[in-house]
Amino acid sequence: MAYHLLQRDQRGAERLAHALSHALETIRHCEKCNSFTEVEVCDLCLSPKRDAHVLCVVETPADMMMMEQAHCYRGMYFVLMGRLSPLDGIGPREIHLDRLVRRATDGIVQEVILATNFTVEGEATAHYISELLTPRGIKVTRIARGLPVGGELEHVDSGTLAQAVLERRNVA
Amino acid sequence: MAYHLLQRDQRGAERLAHALSHALETIRHCEKCNSFTEVEVCDLCLSPKRDAHVLCVVETPADMMMMEQAHCYRGMYFVLMGRLSPLDGIGPREIHLDRLVRRATDGIVQEVILATNFTVEGEATAHYISELLTPRGIKVTRIARGLPVGGELEHVDSGTLAQAVLERRNVA
Ligand SMILES: [Zn+2]
Ligand SMILES: [Zn+2]
To answer: In the UniProt record, does the keyword Secreted occur (chains A, B) (predicted)?
Structure first.
């Protein structure tokens, strides 16, 4: 891309370089949710319309965006900016779990929803966080595994069907 | 297929015709699970290794096979041989819901797991059955909706993510 810009659009390349260096100077992590922001605390964390009693933990800002697009959640977020991955040298310190614990024990948060991915690393991260938070008296929940909306038994893999049976819900 | 057989393999066509008419004469519905069988009560329903306290309701014999292949379930089945579909004239009588109620209220079954598909018709069928069984004191459960095993937030549709949040589970 850089090569293309330099050859075809030198003015554009200058503007892009300027925007990038500006971003690198001003982008920081929100004090509350740890996502990217240009201010100390981001708009979402400051919004009085959000439910401050629920904190949803996601791996990336993209996952936070997916949650917002699903219009299913009105609480707060904590963005790990990664996941536990011992083989890559990413431990609890690298994903700021100390900051998550401080955030979740502010006395206002009552429930932490673990919305990390259902990959091996996402599951390990969720497990590690629940071990940190449950002894501190915080209700910890995990988003559900199962069949997709509109899904048919014939079209899901065995592992997912097995989880859907294992995690079956009471019908009121 | 019939045309091909008649032209190329007349002996094969005769054998197939014989097998089919034999099947039509001998195949019947199992007295207990309503699936196809050649005897009064099928092998699975007679097996002492299955847990008679749990009854799983599926739409088709194929769905029952999916459940068996997932190795997640050791109870009994009831196969609806369809689903409620008012527009196609398929009501409670056509899918033998009276027989399901009799089967579920045998005094041994304690839980009925609704494993109909998460399609509109499968959901309506599950709802209708739960309305029939819960007043009769039977615990009714529904297989879970949510993210697939191995699934990532970025790769599921909004509806499924919303359900996964709505149906989140307590972490022990
Ligand atoms: Zn924030
Ligand atoms: Zn049977």
So the answer is: no
